[in-house]
Amino acid sequence: MLLSVRLSDQASNNLMPTVHSTIYMYAGLTTRIIPFNVGIKMRQQTLHLFGHSICPYVQRVAILMKEKNIQCERTDIELHNKPQWLNKISPLAKVPVLVIDDHIPLFESQVICDYLDEVTPGSLQPKDVLEKAQQRAWIAYADEILGSIAKIIYRDKNHESFDESCSNIFAHLKILEQIISADGYFSATRFYLIDAVYGTVFRYFKVLFSHLNQNPFHDFPKVEKWQQALSERKSVIEAVANDYDQQLVKFIQKQNSYISHLVS
Ligand SMILES: N[C@@H](CCC(=O)N[C@@H](CS)C(=O)NCC(=O)O)C(=O)O
C-alpha cells in the first residue's frame, strides 16, 4: 500500500548512519522498500520491525500493521541472548523497535503504533479527542494487567503469591466488565487499537489458567464476548505463529516460578 507520511526535510535529515551500518553489519538483514508520499514528492521508505515471537508489545504493532496492510520486514531476537546491536537502536534494550529507512529507530510500542497509524490512511483510534484519550487510559490499564501476568510468569514463587496475582487480574476484569460495550469490541462494533492491545492480553489466559479448571471469564460475560471476538479477528490471530501456545508454555517452563511447574 502507499504510505502517506508527514515527514519534514528536517526529520529526514536526522540520520543515524552508525545505527544503520551497525545493525546491518551485525545482523546481515534485508529490508523491504515501501513507497510513500512526502509532500508532493514520492520517495521510498523501508520499515523493519525487531521483535520477539511472543512479546505482547510487539504484537500490538504487528496487529496494527495487519489491520492497515502495512508491509514490513520482521526480525525476532532472543531476549535471553540479546544481540549486541540491540541497545544501539533501543536504549532500554527492549523490543519492539521499528527501524525506518534503515537508520531511524523508534522504540516504545505505543509510539510506534501512533506513528504508523498517523502516516497511513484511516485510523485505528477514535477521531474524537476525548474518546481517544479515554481509550489510551484503558490501554494503560491493560499494561497493569500485563504487569500481573509478568509477575505470575517470572516472580510468583508460591501458591499464595500466584493467587494474589490472579485476584488482581480478576479485579481488573471486573472493572472492565462495567465499562466496556456489550457489542463485541471495547467501543461497540468497531475494532480500535485498544482492541488489539487487549487481544494480546487475553491470549495469555488459556495457558496461564489451564491448570485451574475454571473459566477466567466466568463472572464477566461482556469481557468473555470481547475476548471471543478478539480471538476470531484475523489480525489478532496472525500476529503470532500457529504454535504460540506451545512457545509460551516453553518460555514459562524455563522460568523458576510457581506457574513454570504447572503449565504443559
Ligand atoms: N514499554 C515497552 C515495553 C516493551 C517490553 O517490555 N518488551 C519486552 C519483551 S515483551 C523486552 O524487550 N524485554 C527485554 C528486557 O526487559 O530486557 C513498549 O511498550 O514497547
Walk me through the structure:
The chain is α/β, with parallel strands linked by helices and 264 residues long. The chain has two domains: 3-118, Glutaredoxin, CATH 3.40.30; 129-261, Up-down Bundle (Glutathione S-transferase Yfyf (Class Pi), Chain A, domain 2), CATH 1.20.1050. Helix content is 49%, strand content 12%. It has twelve helices and six strands. The longest helix has 27 residues, at 129-155. Glutathione (GSH) is lined by residues 52, 55, 57, 79, 93-96, 108-110.
Task: List its salient traits.
Glutaredoxin; six-stranded mixed β-sheet; 6 strands; Glutathione S-transferase Yfyf (Class Pi), Chain A, domain 2; 264 residues; binds glutathione; alpha/beta
Task: Give the SSE layout.
Elements: E1 3-5, H1 9-13, H2 17-27, E2 32-38, E3 41-51, H3 56-67, E4 73-76, H4 86-89, E5 97-100, E6 104-107, H5 109-118, H6 129-155, H7 159-179, H8 193-202, H9 205-208, H10 221-231, H11 234-238, H12 244-253
Parallel strand pairs: 1-2, 3-4
Antiparallel strand pairs: 2-3, 3-5, 5-6
The protein binds glutathione.
The site of glutathione (GSH) has 11 residues, from α5.
